[in-house]
Specification:
The chain is of the alpha+beta class and 137 residues long. 16% of the residues lie in helices and 36% in strands. The strands form two sheets. Strands 4-5-6-8-7 form a five-stranded mixed barrel. The chain has a three-stranded antiparallel sheet with strand order 2-1-3. A hairpin with a 2-residue loop joins β7 and β8. The chain is globular, with a radius of gyration of 16 Å. The mean pLDDT is 92. This is Putative OB-fold protein.
Length: 137
């Protein structure tokens, strides 16, 4: 598959199990998923930076009839929610390791630590997240 030059670094990073964002040269804000202009200050110059991938899972929505994904389900139990990486960027993502039963126990413990889960899908490496091991109360 041919990848456009403008996003090539991002997808190469995923293939190497690395996350890349864009850092503003003016204010230092980081964009993930990467964008070529800063959403914080509007400055037009950004540069690639590698992100840790370590973060916190802040909210939890379980799949239902309208948003369930059979391909995701083939990998295991999952949910959706807001992720905040150590670098401060926030975005919605799929998080594996969440069953309906487990969700009831985990919701009061939010935010929970997560790490990236890199998976091959349709010939491209994509990133999801996975719960770190958590002591359930």
């Amino acid at each position: 598959m041919k990848i456009e030059k403008i996003v090539e670094k991002f997808y190469q990073g995923l293939a190497e199990h690395k996350l890349y964002g864009r850092k503003c040269k003016e204010c230092g804000a980081i964009e993930y998923p990467p964008r070529y202009a800063c959403n914080t200050c509007g400055y037009h110059e950004t540069e690639w930076v590698e992100l840790s991938g370590k973060g916190k899972f802040h909210s939890m929505i379980l799949p239902s009839t309208l948003n369930a994904d059979p391909w995701n389900a083939s990998l295991g139990t999952y949910g959706y929610g807001l992720i905040e990486l150590e670098e401060g960027v926030m975005f919605n993502a799929t998080v594996f390791g969440i069953s309906k039963k487990k969700a009831k126990k985990l919701r009061p413990l939010l935010p929970l630590p997560v790490h990236p889960l890199f998976v091959e899908k349709d010939g491209v490496t994509v990133v999801f997240f996975e719960l770190d091991e958590v002591e359930e109360g």
